[in-house]
Amino acid sequence: MDKRCWFPNLLTTANLFCGFIAITLVVHAMETGIQGETSFHWAALTICLAALCDALDGRVARALRVSSLFGKELDSLSDVVSFGVAPALLVYEGFFRDNSLPGMWILWVTISGLFVCCGAARLARYNISATTGRFFTGMPIPAAGLTITGLAMFPSRLNAVLMAVIVLFAAFLMISTLRFPNPEQLIFDSPLAIRIALFGLFIIALIDPTNWFFLLPIAYMAYGLGGNIIDALRPEEA
Fold it and tell me: What DSSP assignment string belongs to 91-123?
């Protein structure tokens, strides 16, 4: 393996490590109760940091013109932890665990577990497919994980049932055959108006991430769904 591969692989490993830290912070929040709200908040921010590492590893690999099967598999394994297990555990602790009637915990655990399983299936499908370019098949797991993480940053604004619907919808989008734009190309190669809008959302999220970070992944989800609706309504060429 080319030694230069270690640079993007180091970022991928940082992504995985951030996911592990997020999980430990959620566990700490579960153990300490109300005093663990700070840990809960930091867990969400750590998942966001994992997303930054995930975005950078690919760009570094392309800048160095290196790639490896090892790096591809490591990236998928890291994504399952950072954007599958960690967000699902975060949502379970923030919305489901204290909203359970007797026996309801089975439903909440199942919903959280389905999100992880759909994310893993999405990554497995991506790894065996040869499709590259502007679009992905199914919503990428980082976008799905960041969606529920962003909403989990302010649990008082959503009830458990609504959050469960969102989690299941995000899980469905990951394993669907709907086309979603490559986030990197959307940011750097999209029309100027879209890039300005994304930059504006980023500034808003940066100023007050606790309340507004969710706008970024929600906007991506809406953009992807809107594109599929437009494609479905567009008349076929003769």
Answer: HIIIIITTS--TTTHHHHHHHHHHHHHHHHHHH
